[in-house]
Amino acid sequence: MAMTPHPDDLRLDALEPDDLDGHTIDELADYLDDGMQPADPTIDDSPACQNALAAIIRLRQSSMGSLDAAAAEEPPADESWIGGVLANISLEARAGRDVPLIPEAPTERPVMTEGAIRSLIRSAGDVVPGVVIARCSLDGDVTTLGAPVRVLVELAVRTGAPIHAAAEQVREAVATVLAEQTDLVVDAVDVHVRDLLPALPADADHEEDRA
Questions:
Q1: 3-state class (DSSP) for residue 200
Q2: Which carries the bigger pLDDT value, residue 105 or residue 150?
Q3: What is the rounded CA–CA span in Å between residue 203 and residue 105?
Q4: pLDDT tens per residue across span 2-56
Q5: What does pTM read for this prediction?
């Protein structure tokens, strides 16, 4: 089953250079494949690139067995699906808006970037077994301390995983990490299951359990 592109998804090649400090998702993937050697300070010192690298690593660890199985049945759909996830990683990794934190002193103006918060959301959801995070976003005035915010998480669930339980685990994990590491007033965490991925082969499933 192929994921239908979200209507506000933008073209990957049109967005990457600005979003990832001049780099592209393909360049970051190649950098990972080369063991991140020789070191590239323009990647290593870029928060956006680091967020994207972490997301790519989790995506590879959690989904490649399923994607290989899907490719055997319908390669074009599979390529479209993984391309959409990578495009969303590129979008989400950019710094975005400054999100205020509660100051500990009157002279302080602490903030987190929106990209850092999206990375927290994605990392919290990605650890739920049988789940691949496709897209996440913040809806609301995140620049005003105390303003209500809704969080949207769109995901794919591996065939065989309990869909309702997996969605609830993602919701709880995201709500917990945001409560612990941000000062956002989260009105709701909306979790939408957008696609199903084939089950992992048995040997890959065992490897995932040991990870």
A1: coil
A2: 150
A3: 54
A4: 343 333 333 333 334 456 788 888 888 888 788 888 889 998 888 878 877 877 7
A5: 0.65
**First and final CA of the chain: distance in angstroms?**
27
Domain 12-210, classified CATH 3.20.20.370, yes or no: no
Write the DSSP assignment of 36-63 as a string of letters. Answer: T-S--HHHHT-HHHHHHHHHHHHHHHHH
Cα(105)–Cα(195) distance, integer angstroms: 46
**C-beta of residue 171 within 8 angstroms of C-beta of residue 35:** no
C-alpha radius of gyration, the chain, whole number: 17
| Pairing assessment for the beta strands 131-140 and 111-113 based on DSSP bridges | unpaired
Q: Note the pLDDT tens digit of each residue in 42-99.
A: 988 888 788 778 777 777 766 554 444 444 444 434 455 666 666 667 666 677 889 9
Contact 117, 137 (CB under 8 A): no
163 falls in which pLDDT band (50, 70, 90)? very high
Q: d(Cα 131, Cα 116) in Å, to the nearest integer?
A: 21
The domain limits of the chain are 12-210
